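Holo prediction. Input below; ligand is pyridoxal-5'-phosphate.
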Amino acid sequence: MMNYQRFFEEAIDQLHAERRYRIFADLERIAGAFPRAIWRANGEAREITVWCSNDYLGMGQHPDVIAAQQQAAGRMGSGAGGTRNISGTNHPLVELELELADLHGKDSALVFTSGFVSNEAAISTIARLMPYCLVLSDELNHASMIEGVRRSGAEKKVFRHNDVAHLESLLQAAGRERAKLIVFESVYSMDGDVAPIEKIADLAEKYNAMTYIDEVHAVGMYGARGGGITEREGLAHRIDVIEGTLAKAFGTLGGYITGPRAVVDAVRSYAPGFIFTTALPPAIAAAATASIRHLKQSNIEREQHQRQAQRTKDVLSAAGLPVMPSSTHIVPVLVGDPELCKMASDRLLGVHGIYIQPINYPTVPRGSERLRITPTPFHDDRLIDDLQDALVETWDALGIPYAGTRRPAQHRTDRIIPLVVPASGG
Ligand SMILES: Cc1ncc(COP(=O)(O)O)c(C=O)c1O
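Structure of the complex:
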């Protein structure tokens, strides 16, 4: 007889055996003091610095964003009250979709409850509606895109990461007549590299393929108005569907697609992941709109973000730490072993009050386990110097390899000041 309890315990044991069991830190972000947060563990509460948030620009604590959310909640309440199909669309969501269509220079936009859902719902619906569609998918695409392709039931061919020659050979083999959808990302979030968007758009034109780009790790941060890498490179009009999230640089929650009116309308009309789920709350929609509006006309966040990201890379590289090559704001530091990666993360938090979640398989290939550091405009120069000291101390203490030759320890211990604040509640 099936022992259900035992079955699930064994599934968890398997993760422990593979050293892949994940533990989440118990954190409380402090609005107004980002990237500081309160970390609760072992009955104690401690103030720490977060170095792995995807609130890339700190917009989650921007006064205009908080005010918009509070005002909308005060006027309209907390929830959306149902699916849009059954209960209509709250006006803040109408405004948000207009804002998003304008951001990417597209006819229409459609908002989902997350970026994951937007990829899963849109890709599966677009590829399913087109007869005998072939999906061409970059090998490093996010799980939400892979899930969308899988659910479409369409044939899929995976092209080597950012390899346009490989993509072209697959397009050529499929021929111009067959329906084809190329799905890829602009910024790949684990390595921080960027897709050859123009070349992919050229190939799409040559072989008559449709294009779908995930700009989740770029919207808000790149382009003169925060329209992502496609805006920065003047390519938005050459990509059919641009997908993004409201949960990272825009600091709120939700996902979206923008594109030609008929495509967006078809997804709205056919995608179960859109139709059969409650809409985003109006207060979240209002907060997202405030964030997008702010970032459309303000460049200071983007400039500071790039400056602090570059400085972080420079300082850590100069210390001999194995910073992996990245042409964007993402700073991956190689550890190369899951156990060491977890130990490094634990030590950074416990000893230095620095939170960086370990990134292990299957998020990244085995042997490339890493600390993925995401500087924001709020990680000032002093915080960067503190991070360098803490990483060097951790690398020395755990014997993690440096880049090239091993560097003599030069860490300063005078900066390691654990701040203890009273625990409130749990
Ligand atoms: C490339 C990519 N696409 C989509 C998502 C999902 O976005 P969201 O967090 O809004 O669900 C993520 C990660 O969160 C991502 O990294």
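Confidence is low (pLDDT under 50) at residues 408-426. That is the main takeaway for now.
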